[in-house]
Amino acid sequence: MIPEHVTPVLAAAGTIELILIFAGIVVWWRMGRPRPPRLAPWSISVSDFLTCVLAVIGGGYFFQLLGHAIGDPFLRKFSAASDARTIVYGTAFQLGLLAGLAGARVYLRTRPEAAEVPTSPPRMPSLPVAGLVTFLAVLPAVTVTGLAWSWIIQLLGLPPEPQDLVDMFAHPQSRTSFIVLFVLATVGAPIVEELVFRAGLFRYLRTRLPRWAALSLPALFFASLHGNWASLGPIAMLAIIFSLAYERTGRIGVTMIAHGLFNLNTILLVLAGMRA
C-alpha cells in the first residue's frame, strides 16, 4: 500500500527521479576511461588573481549596499514580506558579482601574461547535451552523498534544517516572488556561481595545489555559502563534480547548464511535495 501522505504527483515525481538517477549511473558507466583535461592552465599571477577577487567581492557587496540604500525605503513603505527582501538583496549581490567579473575581465585584457589558450579539440558534444549529461551524472553522486550526510548529521545531533531558498519555494508568499526566485535559482545563480567558483577559483587552484585540495577547497567554500550543515555534504559533492566536468570539457557553459538543471530539478521536487 502507498502511504497516505504520498500523493500521485509526489509518486510520479519520485518515479521520474529514480529514472534520472539510473540514467546518471549509466552516464558514469559510459564515461569509462579517464580522458586528458581540455581546460588549459591559467597563467595568471597571484597579484592579478587577488585583484580580480577583490573586484568580484567588492562589486557584490557594493551592489548589495546599494540595494539596501535604494530598496529599503520602498520595502518599508509597502511592508514587503521577507521573500521580497531576499529577492532584492540577493539580486543586487548577484548583479554586483557580475559587474565585478566584467571589471576583472577588462583588467585581465590589459595583462597579456594572464591570457588563456583554449585547448578544446574537435568533435565535442554540443553544449546542451554536455550540460544534460553532467546533470545526470550529478544526481546519483549527490543522492548517495546526501543519504550518507544525513546519517552523519543525525549521528552528530545537528538539526536537519532545509536551505532557506528551498523553504521559500515550498511556502511562497506570492506568485511574483516565486517567479523571480525561480529565475534567480535556475538562471542567475548558475551563471554567477559557475563563473566565480569554477571558472575563477577552481581554475586558478587546479595547477597550484594538490588535486584533492584544488577540488575540495572551492567545493567546501561553495557549500558553506548555501546556508546550513544539513546541505554541506551533498552540495560539496555537487561542486566537485562540476569542477571535474569543467576540467574535462574546458567549457564553463556545460556546468552552467547542469547547475541550472539541478536547481530546476530540486524546485520541481519541492513543488511535488518531496522534502529533505
Description:
- This protein is mainly α and about 280 residues long.
- It has two domains: about 1-30 and about 130-275, no CATH class; about 45-115, no CATH class.
- It has helices at about 10-30, 45-75, 80-110, 125-155, 165-170, 175-205, 210-225, 230-250, 250-270.
- Helix 6 (about 175-205) runs antiparallel to helix 7 (about 210-225) and helix 8 runs antiparallel to helix 9.
- The mean pLDDT is about 85.
Average pLDDT rating: 85
The shape, in one word, is globular
Label the structural class. Answer: mainly alpha
Detail the poorly predicted runs: none
Secondary structure elements and their pairing?
Blueprint: H1 8-31, H2 46-77, H3 82-109, H4 127-156, H5 164-170, H6 175-205, H7 211-224, H8 232-249, H9 252-272
Helix pairs in contact: 1-4, 2-3, 3-6, 4-8, 4-9, 6-7, 6-8, 6-9, 7-8, 8-9
Main attributes of the structure:
mainly alpha; 2 domains; globular; 276 residues
Summarize the entry for a quick read.
By secondary structure, the protein is mostly helical. The chain has helices at 8-31, 46-77, 82-109, 127-156, 164-170, 175-205, 211-224, 232-249, 252-272. The radius of gyration is 20 Å and the shape is globular.
